[in-house]
Amino acid sequence: MYTIKSTSEDGVYYLVKDWRKNKAIWTTKNELDRTMLYKRPQDAWASLTKLLKVMDEYKTDTFELVTIEV
Length: 70
Description:
alpha+beta
């Protein structure tokens, strides 16, 4: 399973799939579960791209695709 890891001055966070359902856009690694992860890497990147179009405050963060074994 895949997600996007964001590193910033505020810490390290992971992008949440279906954020409306999960009530969070970003979460910590300890709080991640299977329902918050993407099945395909391109879906994770697409979600991040959409998020960055509307939330400029994340544009200075460093992003990387990560694989999470759950």
